[in-house]
Amino acid sequence: MKKTLLFFHLLFIAAVACAEDGYTLWLRYNKVDDQVLLQQYRSKINSIQFTGNSLTLAVAKKEMLNGLEGLLAIPIADKKTISDRSIVTGTPLTSTFIRSFLSEGNFDLGKEGFVISTKKTDQKNIIIIAANSDVGVLYGVFQLLRLLQTHQSIEKLSIVSIPKIQNRVLDHWDNLNRTVERGYAGASIWNWHLLPGYIDKRYIDYARANASIGINGTVLTNVNANAMVLTKPYLEKVAALANVFRPYGIKVYLTARFSAPMEIGGLKTADPLDAEVQNWWKQKCDEIYSYIPDFGGFVIKANSEGQPGPQNYGRTHADGANMFADALAPHHGIVMWRAFVYDARVQKSTENFGEGKADPSAPSIASSDRAKQAYDEFKPLDGKFRKNVLVQVKNGPVDFQPREPFSPLFGAMQHTPLIIEFQLTQEYLGQATTLVYEAPLFKECLDADTYSKARLNDTVGQGKGSTVAKVIDGSLENYPATAIAGVANIGNERNWTGHPFGQANWYAFGRLAWDHALSSEQIAEEWLRQTFSNDQHFVIGTKKIMMMSRETMVNYMTPLGLHHIMGTGFHYGPAPWVDNAGRADWNPVYYHRADSAGIGFDRTVTGSNAISQYAEEVRKQWEDVKTCDEKYLLWFHHVSWNYKMKSGRTLWNELCYKYYSGVDSVRWMQHTWNGLKKYIDEERFEQVKMLLAIQEKEAVWWRNACLLYFQTWSKMPIPASYEKPDHDLQYYKALKFPYAPGNGGNL
Amino acid sequence: MKKTLLFFHLLFIAAVACAEDGYTLWLRYNKVDDQVLLQQYRSKINSIQFTGNSLTLAVAKKEMLNGLEGLLAIPIADKKTISDRSIVTGTPLTSTFIRSFLSEGNFDLGKEGFVISTKKTDQKNIIIIAANSDVGVLYGVFQLLRLLQTHQSIEKLSIVSIPKIQNRVLDHWDNLNRTVERGYAGASIWNWHLLPGYIDKRYIDYARANASIGINGTVLTNVNANAMVLTKPYLEKVAALANVFRPYGIKVYLTARFSAPMEIGGLKTADPLDAEVQNWWKQKCDEIYSYIPDFGGFVIKANSEGQPGPQNYGRTHADGANMFADALAPHHGIVMWRAFVYDARVQKSTENFGEGKADPSAPSIASSDRAKQAYDEFKPLDGKFRKNVLVQVKNGPVDFQPREPFSPLFGAMQHTPLIIEFQLTQEYLGQATTLVYEAPLFKECLDADTYSKARLNDTVGQGKGSTVAKVIDGSLENYPATAIAGVANIGNERNWTGHPFGQANWYAFGRLAWDHALSSEQIAEEWLRQTFSNDQHFVIGTKKIMMMSRETMVNYMTPLGLHHIMGTGFHYGPAPWVDNAGRADWNPVYYHRADSAGIGFDRTVTGSNAISQYAEEVRKQWEDVKTCDEKYLLWFHHVSWNYKMKSGRTLWNELCYKYYSGVDSVRWMQHTWNGLKKYIDEERFEQVKMLLAIQEKEAVWWRNACLLYFQTWSKMPIPASYEKPDHDLQYYKALKFPYAPGNGGNL
What CA–CA distances, in Å, run from A633 to A398, A400, A429, A629, A681? Predict the structure, then answer.
């Protein structure tokens, strides 16, 4: 009786002990709550046998012990020899047993892959985690823990996993003053002031989280770069972070400010063909590598949005990139040169916004359509970059909109390795308050077929099957270096991402960077099970919410191919009426081109002809208004308000339908979430509930503001069956949010 | 056997469950780890009997249950009737039993006081928590939990506790963009963008922490105020916070920008004697109270450091304050009018800095010494303020320096209630990286005797015993309103204050605001036991560190009465050489006045005569260089380098001694802390260890930079027995920290 009471007390303590504040992300190792499964797991695992003693293997072992002891709620023995019910780990270098195992299996694991396998050896049932490298073991450890976290069977394991892309990188747009450009989760996690002396535990947990999903690089600083990070005091700070991340297989990168030789080097020029400048960068790289021997390289934003670059000196992007490449090459560093270019020196006119108007003093190429500029500037440079240069291309040709077609550059640079850049932080996707699961957006782009004239073995000369994913992972062209980048959505809020579901986008990015063949649904399910609960009702319901969330947002923000109609500067909320921004292509009216005749940007041959940047097969899908996928309709065509859509509705009525159905979907998401209350902790349930209520208000705001504004052109009524907007257009136009986050020092 | 194993497993879970990340502050309810005591506690408490059902009593009950179940690790029954081993709580309104108990005991508890008492009634042993108000019960609940947290006996309880000061307020210098002026713990915890829809759990835990130490007011916004917080969208956000805080007895205050009638009201003037302006503020107050019926009032910084104020219109501080007072009076709000004034319109000259040089166009009073200005401006206004105006005075006459004598205003305003303002955030006390326990600083000021001609019953006409504390708590003058303010050191870092020991200053401020008779040691011990461990070795060792920490910092920063010799702008690090700041009294050289003859600011009759602002008895303590307490020596006197100190050393050698002993003390603190590793969690142990290592470096920096600079005047050697500075003065002068936190958007 007394013992039973004590039992109860102990259970009680375990239950009340920890708040579900989201800090642990998907690395929750709570006891498996399915009793049958728990017994099964315990019958298979009661110890580990870990060989090797590198820093990486030490953290892998610690993670393994911590994870197993949490999940199985039993002490896990640390064995010196192989025993029954043991997890046996190692590499050919650390273990003869593993060496034999790998060589017998003839596994092709590369540098980072791993195998997880159940095996009976000498009457002992064991689970093997083997890899060629220590970090491969670490990845295998996280994968095994994920199996337990997500309640998978471990009866017969035979998993071989190899990353498809080499460099899987998070880009932080974090400033040295701890503000985060387009950050919606508090301050930067990098506390530069306290580095190198103070190592925040967050740095370690950041590395754990990234390693658990295979992310192996981090760009610490904003692409709008500050040269100071390249000075000695900051390199010491960067080195301290690199030391934390190294055991987790994560390399550190920095953004290089093109004009740094002038700003911190005292030179009179930053001309990339100037020998003194080249030498300065060589010496700077030597210095960096003296602090960080495995430094990854530079990310560079040049001649874009006012950033300095080679065009300031009449040089090309290739000239600029190659200078950095030469300085980094002796140390095996790479250059990630961004193709997101639209130089502030062009299109200064705000009046003649239909036609990009070049500043006559600017030597750079001015496109008649901002969607064309990256291609216009980079296509001619294909093949002119050094081998350690990768050109970093945003998924779409404009700027991380809720929906864009893939960037035409992905089908156009056969001689240059390309990085795809996704944005995890939701600059244009509702920012801090919107539940939007981005994997479907990532996949839509990765799976898109560029029909580039690439040399797939089975389709020589035809191009079909030349998906963006195959361009990026190098399988089309056999590039020596491949990479993928995600702009981080991480800040110092307790749960890292502000919105609890922001974590899913970090997770999904990492998982797809490792294996872009994974489905959005599969990743959502994994994440939900690890992060919240394995309860079937919860997983099914919440997965539905996640899977519909991106289309829902597109519907109430920018349906049918609309884009870039958000508020100026902060990019918060709708503002399709704005026509007075600092340059033509910052104005929503530049993009939607609504007039009394219709709406949409004609990018066919009768308009900007941006469509000509795609392969013929791609053009054919979109160039005819009658056959164009309606999700891209207004991206490529200016369409009459009366145009009959596939639904039978007029364009105007279809627009109304989309906007209203977007709001309805948010309400459905709210309803569904409310029904799942009993399955998870109160803290996160309430957080999401409050955020969904805000999202519903914002969805109504988007819908009403956009339809009331477009109505001033269409002169058509919102169908009477819909709820009426509760404010007039003037009300929406008058709203001001000077302290919206993510811009100009606002947090 | 099986049961024993399960036992073990459960214990194991409980042990690994939660990280000690500091988020829970001193409200840790971990199981009592002294088995004897645990059994004693359990034998006295197994249930509660809670009467009443207000929101305040609901949170008190939840806290009580949560706390007891955590500490005692048993389920606590929630009884309807009084039972043996029950904690019986209530007020005269909620319980006839409590009504009888209070009336029999004839307790004088006021609005917020409480009594905790053991009692045997009808053969039942119970613990009573009784108060006149619901919030009194809440305070009693936290006090009882504190007894258990700190391992006190609860055998015979007879505690009566009443706060000595009515309004115990935290001032947040938080901006609407989530930066925090002089904040060193990340971003503001107020996420204005997500309010009112999203209630961060932090808001609730903030309220719990404050209520647990008796803080009952919070000023949400920076004294350098933004009028926008007074607009409708922000008042809705403020109201949401007020709703969270109300159950915890915490009122919300805002800072009022003096020019708001012009900036958001469209008026042409903000003249406090203009009827339209007065009316605007009356209406604004009516509006505020329509959102927040228990709004506390305004804090106003006017005609100080560029802030607008009544002097812009030729009016006095009293004219300004009274306008707000009249607008707030119908709602029972108060005005906290800051006396920290040094108008930017005076002392513009940087050359003639020995004499404050008034701008001829400025109507305000220009003092020849910044230390005099608050007195000069406010003393003449004594008695001219409305009854609901309190004048808020910083502890010292300059600005939150490591050591200042108390402000002379505390002895000079017999007809005006004064608030004392302390700074918990360590703007001048080493900021993010310094372990400094501020209670001794607070107490030094509170216990100082103003010898004001106040009417203490037993010392009529003599003034002795007129301590600052008695001025503030109103006992000298019987003011109807009393208040104390602390500038918060709170941000959104996981542990709230960045430095784990920053929490102690928040705690100490609250405890002293409740009862300024508590000793610094007593508060340190309470805090340590609740926050870290009850282990005697740990408590004794760490208490020593805390108790010496402030004097240590004074020694290596500003010994012997030196002050204001830190870096310009950021206030980070030493910069005694600065002589080119924007105005004379921003320059360190203005304050230390080192020259070839000596060092120090002559504030006696031969100098600025600031000493004349003190009562005669106080002046006598300080005006003679021979008898002046050496800790204030250079505050009041310009002293020859060869002056013989009480130690027998020359002033120069004494200065060297102090600076070197300060660094030695930091090293002693490091050594002591390292010896306490085994007593606490690794996470916080390592945090403090890393921070102490940074502090040691910074202490050496302060010592070397200051002595090398002062040496350029003294021309005397640093005694050979000391370690030599490892850099020269030029090195220290060249150091730049453009991203030091707490200033201009840096976090």
Answer: 16, 18, 20, 6, 43
The size of chain A, in residues, is 747
Q: DSSP H helical segments within B130-257, as ranges?
A: 134-149, 201-212, 232-245
Answer yes or no: do B73 and A432 touch at CB < 8 A: no
Alpha helices in B450-535 (DSSP H): 468-472, 502-514, 520-531
- Residue A739 is nearest to which of B6, B177, B739, comparing CB atoms? B177
Of A427, A444, A535, A654, the active-site residue reads A427
Please state, in angstroms and rounded to a whole number, the distance separating the CA atoms of residues B98 and B110.
Answer: 15
A399 catalytic residue (yes or no): yes
Q: Name the pLDDT band for B4 (thresholds 50, 70, 90).
A: low
Q: Do the beta carbons of residue B386 and residue B552 sit within 8 Å? A: no
Length of chain B (residues) = 747
- Portion of chain B with pLDDT greater than 90, in percent: 90
How many angstroms separate the CA atoms of B174 and B206, rounded? Answer: 15
**Cβ neighbours of residue B455 closer than 8 Å, sequence gap 6 or more:** B476, B477
- Return all residues near B207 (Cβ < 8 A) that are at least 6 apart: B244, B245, B247, B248, B250
Place of tokens 């996280």: A142
**Distance, CA of A402 to CA of A399 (rounded, Å):** 9
B304/B106 Cα distance (integer angstroms): 48
DSSP A530-573: HHT---HHHHHHHHHHHHHHHHHHHHHHSGGG----B-TTT--S
Q: Give the residue from A464, A431, A513 showing the smallest Cα distance to A171.
A: A513
- Name the burial class of residue A306, with classes exposed (0-12), middle (13-18) and buried (19+) by CB atoms within 10 angstroms of its CB: exposed
Secondary structure of residue B329 in the 3-state scheme: helix
Provide the shortest C-alpha distance from residue B71 to chain A (in Å).
10
Q: Is B745 on the interface with A (CB under 8 A)?
A: yes
> Which residue in this structure is represented by tokens 């105005």?
B583
Instruction: Dump pLDDT digits (tens) for B169-215.
Output: 999 999 999 999 999 999 999 999 999 999 999 999 999 999 999 99
CA A260 and chain centroid, separation = 28
pTM over cut 0.90: yes
Q: Convert the pLDDT of each residue in A88-115 to its tens digit.
A: 999 999 999 999 999 999 999 999 999 9
Q: Which residues contact B152 (CB under 8 A, 6 or more apart)?
A: none
The residue of B6, B41, B182, B194 whose CB has the most chain A CBs within 10 angstroms, and thus the best one to mutate to test that interface, is: B194
Is B294 catalytic? The answer is: no
| Cβ <8 Å between A18 and B13 | no
Among B17, B178, B493, beta carbon nearest to A14: B17
Chain B residues within an 8 Å CB radius of A237: none
Per-residue pLDDT reduced to its tens digit, B669-688:
999 999 999 999 999 999 99
Element (H, E) at A484: strand A483-487
- B493 part of contact set with chain A, CB < 8 Å: yes
- The pLDDT value given to residue B14: 43
Instruction: Assess whether pLDDT exceeds 90 at residue B419.
Output: yes
Cβ contact A10–B7 (<8 Å): yes
- Residue-wise pLDDT for A587-597, tens only, equals 999 999 999 99
Assess whether pLDDT exceeds 80 at residue B408. yes
Residue B362's pLDDT band (cuts 50, 70, 90)? very low
Return the biggest CA–CA distance within chain A. 90
B 660-689 residues with CB < 8 A to A = 683, 687
Residue B346 in 3-state DSSP? strand
Nearest residue, CB atoms, B186 vs list A75, A176, A187: A187
CB within 8 Å of chain A, chain B residues 39-68: 66
Question: Residue A407: helix, strand or coil by DSSP?
Answer: coil
| The pLDDT of residue A11 is above 60 | no
Partner B contacted by A8 (CB < 8 A): yes
